[in-house]
Amino acid sequence: MSAPTPSARHNDIMEQVPCNLCGHTETTLRFPDTRQDNHLEGSWSAFCCTHPGYGVHPPIVQCAHCGLVYTNPRPRRDAILHNYEEVVDPLYLQERHARELTFQRHLRKFEAFTGPAAGRRLLDVGAYIGVFVEEANRTGWRATGIEPSTWAVEYARERGLDVVRGVLDDDLFEPASFDAITMWDVFEHLGDPMNELQRMYDLLRPGGWIAVHTMDIGSLFARMMGRRWPWLMEMHIYYFTSRTLAEIIRKAGFEVRTVRPEGRYLRLKYLTTRLRPYSTLLAGIVDDGARLTGLDRLAIPLNMGDLVTAYARKPEA
Ligand SMILES: [Zn+2]
């Protein structure tokens, strides 16, 4: 028997899905398929946090009923999860300082809703190498992380952090056992975000808070950039707007307090890798300049308005 062609192999792991927010199947095409036949299909490398595969993605559609934007067809849920289990991403470690600053800021804003940590329990979903878990411990939470990547979990555990390998569907925790649950840059990667929110709802005690941070495809910057918006990439399955994000969280039972833009710190070197697809020349000039001046390790705050955090709470019983 002959080996399957790349496109046949690809079709094996792809599936059509209904809208995760409203269940309808009627869509309009928002951004056409940009993958080439010889791209790295089924490879974990496209699913790394720091993978520079900008502009390469399957068809991205918009629900004709509720407006949710999502990749369709997209890799099957088990294929998505398998890719994250296999992720090895040493480049991420170089971004550690910038992530620490970002997470310290995220945490301060979250604690404005939750109140002081005071030894209460926090769960970080998709904890990766545990940077947020570590920051949360530092401000007084008893923080646990859950993460599918074997590599990332081993790294986190070597640092003495309570990060367990798995996903919420594995049922590893007692219902209503957490006071706060966070999800940073994870929601857009999930195969079934509605299911994930329902799991979070069950794990949270009444009155507990969640923070969900993701991209906003309805932001001015995203609309101005159109198909050149840098977050259009294969590893992103769902593209929420502030409105659809609030709606899906509400539908899972939470009271949404606010959805607002929140930026992050980026190392200058990392920023130039993002610039490179647009202008090799400009990226080169910034790179050289930064290296010569020793600024390439500098973390700079960046807020284009296209990353948002939703804060919501589970109603008191
Ligand atoms: Zn819909």
How would you describe the overall organization of this protein?
By secondary structure, the protein is α/β, with parallel strands linked by helices. It has one domain (about 90-315): Rossmann fold. It has 11 helices and 15 strands. Zinc ion binds near residues 19, 21, 63 and 68. Zinc ion binds near residues 21, 22, 24 and 65.
Helix-strand layout with pairing:
Blueprint: H1 6-13, E1 14-15, E2 27-31, E3 60-63, E4 69-71, E5 74-75, H2 77-86, H3 90-94, H4 96-114, E6 121-125, H5 131-138, E7 142-147, H6 150-158, E8 163-165, E9 178-184, H7 193-203, E10 204-215, H8 220-225, E11 238-239, H9 242-251, E12 255-261, E13 264-267, H10 268-275, H11 280-293, E14 299-302, E15 307-313
Parallel strand pairs: 6-7, 6-9, 7-8, 9-10
Antiparallel strand pairs: 1-5, 2-3, 3-4, 4-11, 10-15, 12-15, 13-14
Helix pairs in contact: 4-5, 10-11
Query: Whole-number average pLDDT?
Result: 88
* Helical fraction: 25-40%
Bound molecules: zinc ion
What CATH calls the topology is Rossmann fold
Query: Can you tell me the number of structural domains?
Result: 1
Keywords:
about 325 residues; four-stranded antiparallel β-sheet; Rossmann fold; binds zinc ion; disordered N terminus; about 35% helix; seven-stranded mixed β-sheet; alpha/beta
Summarize the structure.
The longest helix has 19 residues. With 317 residues, the protein is α/β, with parallel strands linked by helices.
